[in-house]
Amino acid sequence: MKSFLYSLLLLGFAIGGPKDNFALVIHGGAGTILKKNMTPEKEAAYRAKLEESLQAGYAVLNAGGSAMDAVEAAIHIMEDSPLFNAGKGAVFTNAGTNELDAAIMNGADLKAGAVAGVKTVKNPITVARKVMEETWHVLLAGEGADKFAEEQGLEIVDPKYFHTERRWKAIQKMKGNEEEKYGTVGCVALDKDGNIAAGTSTGGMTNKRWGRVGDVPIIGAGTYANNKTCAVSATGSGEYFIRAAVAHDISALMEYKRYSLKKASKKVIQKVGKLGGSGGVIAIDAKGNIAMPFNSKGMYRGYIKSDGKPVTLIYKNE
Ligand code: ASP
Known about the structure:
This protein has ten helices and twelve strands. The protein is α+β, with helices and mostly antiparallel strands and 318 residues long. It has an eight-stranded mixed sheet.
């Protein structure tokens, strides 16, 4: 009888207690990222930053923190780096300004928050989270969103903070090769409680005009999370990702058609390709399966599982 009760206890722990299959996946943008255009120094710098981001997220998850906290922590590292098209390294608009988009979603309760076109918020992912937690809205745009961030006591910077030489040159030439155009960052995570979350942050597309908003802050396009299915963060030519409702479509294929995470995410990236779009997604499900399909030449990406060993990848056949 005693051993029966003991087994029941163990079973209960296995079902309801903390799990050790937690994991975190990140991306730092997709595009024409070719080894031949890379210097060893540049590649090392990207890998080091990706690894730092993975470690920041891992520290949260390993300590029993939530997937939401891990996503935010991992994205902060990339937003604060000039290497990526998010936060500090955001690309320029046609008017020579920087307008940032971000979104975050909690798979446990389908709560989400997003901002579009903010100009003074140092870490857009955090204001997206504030929108989710402190308001009953999902998406705030433009000046109102900047004002909200200030009211929330978030770090506000002079718009000059986002001025980096590299991005400025790209817009001056008005062409910016693919790699310069993209570089959005994102993260999906599964925590010890079995909850998943997704977040994405970007400066959008180089040379964008007329208050253009991409897929990133559109829930269901560039960002989505649902414990029942998956958490997804996308990167690529946003217009196509909006039209293909990418992130939600992956979730829907899993929910309605019982596709695996890998099959669903691959299928939807193919759909984007058929429309003429390029890019990729990172995705995770509540069992800790991960997928990172893309149809561009490369995608900065990486993952870390409970064993704590970070893996970073850049090119197609790695
Ligand atoms: N998807 C982003 C946008 O369209 C850009 C990117 O991922 O590079 O705004």
